[in-house]
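Side project, low priority. Logging it here so it doesn't get lost.
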Amino acid sequence: MLFLVIGRGVQGLGGGGIQAIGEITVSDITTLRERGFFINIPIGALALLMLIPTMNLPVPKMPLKTKLAKMDIVGNLVLLGSAASILIAVTEGGVTHPWSSMQIWIPLVAGMGGFVLFLLIEFLPNPLSTQPVLPLKLFSNRTACSAFFMTFLHGIATYGAIYALPVYFQSIKDETPLRSAVSTFPSTAPTAPFAIVAGIAMAVTGKYKNLTFVGWAFTVFGFGWMTRFTTGTVEWELIVAQIVAGVGIGILFAITLPPIQASLPIEELETATATYAFCRSFGAIWGIAITTSVLTATVSDRLGGMPDVAQLGFTGPTVLGYVERIRDLPDPVKEQVRQMYADGLQKGMYAFMPVVVVGFACCFWIEDLPLPDFMREEKKNQHQQVYLEEKSPFSGDGSDGSQDTTLVGSTEHGPVVSMPFDATHDFVRYHDNHQQQHIQRTPEGYASNSFKYSPTLTPSATSYTWDEKSDAVAQPPRAYW
């Protein structure tokens, strides 16, 4: 058992890292508009062979001591311990111990308290966490907060259903594990295609808010339909309900990350994406725990009035392990056991309804921000220099009448340069809100084609600054950034 626990821990470290790194890599090499066209390669070995010759990205060189200092060791340990304590309480409650027992309350309270401590460590300045794994700036706007919470809820619903449906088909419909996998195909088959469709729709329209409404609407309707699953549910209803839920789940797989990355600075891309992956994984833990807890609690409660079933070894802790034995039970007892499992799974689906309804409600707090069109390196470069088109009269050595720019200072956005104002030219800027904007420079001033959420230029004494309030035509000063 110890070896199994250690092995699962190592597997979790690798799996969690792969999930986060995959999302970060896709975010690094594609724009947010294009990301809907890219899907994961399902064969891991092929992916590895492709990465070896192509993943030649520069690696920052720093001493091991510096690398370790950047790790939030304290925060990660507190979070890991808190999650483990909560998981123990949720999975053991009503199974090995009553919910009112100290064996459940102690780890539950300790886990909740540890999670509060983790937030304090991450959000408040302290020497224990100089590089927090969950910086407060990730939750600086309502769009990011809503999207993170939606991701958590999506994880609960998705993995809860994935865990519950095979148990339903094996225990209620007398199917083998292989056959139950085929029966759950209607819930998984639409996931990838509709994730791709949602990504394409987002890329074409540049919008994601309406897609979140559509995704959660399908999910709510599908889960609501699955609460009707009983021992007598007909096959067509089982198939259609799963398809509806699968469509919603697939759309949300593609749509929950873009609002996060569109609403946060590019510098937070890796941290935001890793937090997104954590929210989904943490939700998966709760989804599986809810299914298991409700089912085992229902079975434990019902067994008191079923002595014949209890004598066969069916107890709360064995409820999942004994699923395959149901097919071999005599008919009168089999019907009792099937009804017991059906009631437990139905209660589990009812428990997921508040989760998906709250997820739908979160859509109202999402803002439809413009999707970034820049690549990551381009964004980095714009903080180091002012980009001008090659034909600009302000670039060159002066042989064609042009004059070199002069660096006169800097701002948080980039350098401030002084340029002569004697010609008309076009140049391109990349903004904090991740939108590319073309600005026409004329002797009369600067005319911008900005729109809502897009910053515009206003003059100051020595430089231009960005103003998100309204479009404007600004009179040019002698220096600008």
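Brief comment: The mean pLDDT is 71.
Revisit when time allows.
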